[in-house]
Write a structure and sequence with these properties.
The chain has 310 residues and is an alpha/beta fold. Helices cover 40% and strands 14% of the residues. The chain folds into two domains: 189 residues, Vaccinia Virus protein VP39 (Rossmann fold, 3-Layer(aba) Sandwich); 107 residues, Orthogonal Bundle (DNA polymerase, domain 1). A seven-stranded mixed β-sheet has the order 3-2-1-4-5-7-6, with helices on both faces. Strand 2, helix 3 and strand 3 form a beta-alpha-beta unit. 42% of the residues are buried.
């Protein structure tokens, strides 16, 4: 049973208006959307996006009885295209949960997990784009090492990349188990941690690269000022430091009234404050939620409110 993380915390911020426009950028199994929709009036507009075709099909079936809900197969970085298509200039609330769904991880055929053997895919949208197999079988050692270092922050990135290149010379990778076993052997035994598979960071890194996850978050965040109504709220759930850092830094930038060099006496940058942070520190799951849903343990929620920039 899929459980939406930090649900009560999300509902404390969203929807911002019960008769406005609400946008869920990562519909998934619809847990957050269903709970938020219960707080909306029938006159409100509720738009749900997901880049996974399977999720879109499931969401459309789930929300078929809800006349105010529209579901789109779309990468969240392109949410503005959906709004333009609908003739909507600004929204009153926007939510994104950047985590990979439990069902995706447990579906071996999707290739996300080192615990479930399956084809080495890792694409959120399996209808297009390069696969994880393409990366580990054709990229150079330098490129693979850079990906693991940048997106997995693994101290053994160079060593792991070397092991991958050596292994593929004998036989190209085709399954998640093959990659996981290679990484397991590449990491020195004394650095294996109890309850933490040595391939965790490599799988995270390759998945992030294959899906362009961080670039998409940056693109999406850059559009908030233009597409969130004054008084509207933007809330984002991240699951690792790379995602959380992007949200934190962008919210801090939005909140600044000046970006001139500190030694400059007179401000001429023209920057205005556009958002006010509602979470100085990210909200994290309570012990009870983590006990019930261990996968929620690394979740962090940040929210900010759009303010007038005049």
């Amino acid at each position: 049973m899929h459980k939406p993380v930090l649900l009560n915390e999300v509902l404390s911020f969203l929807p911002a208006k019960d008769d406005g426009v609400l946008l869920d950028l990562t519909g998934g199994f619809g847990g957050h959307s269903a709970a938020m929709n219960e707080k909306l009036k029938p006159s409100a507009k509720h738009i749900i996006l997901d880049r996974d075709p399977e999720s879109v099909e499931r969401l459309r079936e789930r929300f078929k009885p809800c006349g105010n809900v529209q579901v789109f197969h779309k990468n969240f970085a392109l949410f503005d295209e959906v709004l333009d298509e609908l003739g909507i200039e600004k929204v009153d609330g926007i939510l994104a949960d950047f985590g990979v769904s439990t069902m995706q991880v447990r579906d071996g055929a999707r290739g996300f997990s080192f615990r479930e053997d399956g084809p080495l895919d890792m694409r959120m949208d399996n209808s297009n784009g390069i696969t994880a197999a393409d990366v580990v079988n054709s990229f150079s050692r330098e490129e693979i090492s850079s990906i693991i270092d940048k997106y997995g922050e693994d101290r053994f990135a160079w060593r792991i990349a070397g092991a991958i290149v050596n292994a593929r010379d004998e036989k190209p990778f085709s399954t998640t188990r093959e990659l996981a076993d290679t990484v397991f052997k590449a990491v020195p035994a004394k650095f294996h941690k109890k309850g933490f598979h040595p391939a965790t960071q490599t799988f995270q890194a390759v998945r992030i690269y294959v899906n362009g996850e961080l670039e998409e978050i940056e693109t999406m965040l850059s559009k908030l000022e233009d597409r969130v109504q004054t008084g509207g709220i933007a809330a984002f759930i991240s699951f690792h430091s790379l995602e959380d850092r992007l949200v934190k830094e962008k919210f801090r930038y939005f909140e600044k009234e000046c970006i001139c060099p500190t030694q400059q006496i007179i401000c001429n940058c023209g920057k205005t404050r556009t958002f006010r942070q509602l979470t100085r520190k990210p909200l994290i799951p309570a012990e009870a939620e983590v006990a019930e849903n261990p996968l929620s343990r690394s979740a962090k929620l940040r929210a900010a409110k759009r303010v007038s920039s005049s």
